[in-house]
Amino acid sequence: MKIKKIKYNSEANDRSSEKKKKHSLGVPNVSAIEKYFSSQQEEFTKSMKYIANRIISNPDLLRNSLLVGFSKNLNLGEASVMRFCKHLGFRGFTEFKKYFIEEYFEIPDENETKNRIYDIDISQQLTPQDVLTRASNLLARITLETKQSLAKNNSNLSLAADKIHLAPRLFIFGSDSARSLIEEVANRFNSIGVMTITATTVSDMVNKACLLSKGDVAIAVQSSGYNKDILKVISLLQKNRIFTIGICNDARSELSIRVDINFTSCGAYDKDYHILQDTMYVRVSQMLIFECLIGLVTSIDVQQVRELRMNALNTIEQIVQAKDDTPTII
Length: 330
Prior knowledge:
Elements: H1 10-25, E1 27-28, H2 30-38, H3 46-57, H4 59-63, H5 67-74, H6 78-87, H7 93-104, E2 105-106, H8 110-114, H9 128-151, H10 154-166, E3 170-174, H11 179-191, E4 196-199, H12 202-209, E5 217-221, H13 228-239, E6 243-248, H14 254-258, E7 261-264, H15 280-300, H16 302-325
Parallel strand pairs: 3-4, 3-5, 5-6, 6-7
Antiparallel strand pairs: 1-2
């Protein structure tokens, strides 16, 4: 009797693995997405155009949401979203989402990413003008992406600003690579009357986290959002009922999920492929987020901040004059 061999369907398994990678690691092909929706524009209603434009500006919104969450983010009813999906020829939201991820998200080339030596493409000898143009374009892209991300988070920005304004103390902490940014931002907050303390080492984070109490606010800055030490400090803070804010590059990271409010900074970070997670371009995005928070906190009580600044300047002037008046002993 001949025994029939059962072949392992490796091809189907590879396809399934690729789909999973696209869902978790895929990068949206924005130009292809724009082309797909632009071909349908003439037949779209006003609400359909709105949905399409929101997906173009933030494809991850569709990838990371269920029907209920997606509709809520767009301030539309579920029926409107379902009509949009059916208009495009799909049975429902789930089928449209599955097609969208498979067709318009691409897995980054692992070898290309690992061989990349800098954030901008420097694969050959360039002129100063070429480098300046490429660096400026990257900065402009990151600034625009950060602006679009924050524009969708208006309510969170306002809530964070209110919490910081009312907090007796603000605690900003993160990995050592973000120390210069954290210290600069802390100085800015202190200058507008928000008592701010910082930490970038594990022991310092834990010690200062234990000093906080209910009503205080803590902001964690960490590019990947998967740093175990940062996550442990977040758990400690939340046990003490501290309001927590996270700033990282991955909206689906553990940090983003655990904190009360999360802001996603922009950059080239990829948790599986990319090594350059703490570049100056990421810092630009993080600084823009902090600038929005500082500006909003200032606007809550402009007069108080103005008086504080004037008092600080007067005190500095008095110290300088006192030094000038001190007789020199020869």
